[in-house]
Design a protein that fits this description.
3 helices; 73% helix
Length: 99
Amino acid sequence: MTSASALIVLLVGTVVGALIGLLIGGSIDAWYLALLAGFLASIVAAVVRSLILARGAGIGPDDRSLPGLVTIYAAVASLGAGSLALNIAERSGLAAVPV
């Protein structure tokens, strides 16, 4: 169940972050875009993970519920990760691509 949970969060977070970059990429500054995309991606991924695992088969330990404090910590950590990702993109020459 833990690997399924991690895969759900990884895939949903990646898709949501890329969609945010695609939708509002040229309208705001890249730093704000990185923060917004990371923040929204972590929140949406936590919600989708909780919704998908709420329908779980009951196999293994009951780790379906995600504490709200963990979601808040993930959202705050995504702010730092978004700015770090922007820094890496600028150094590698990919900062012009919002996705």
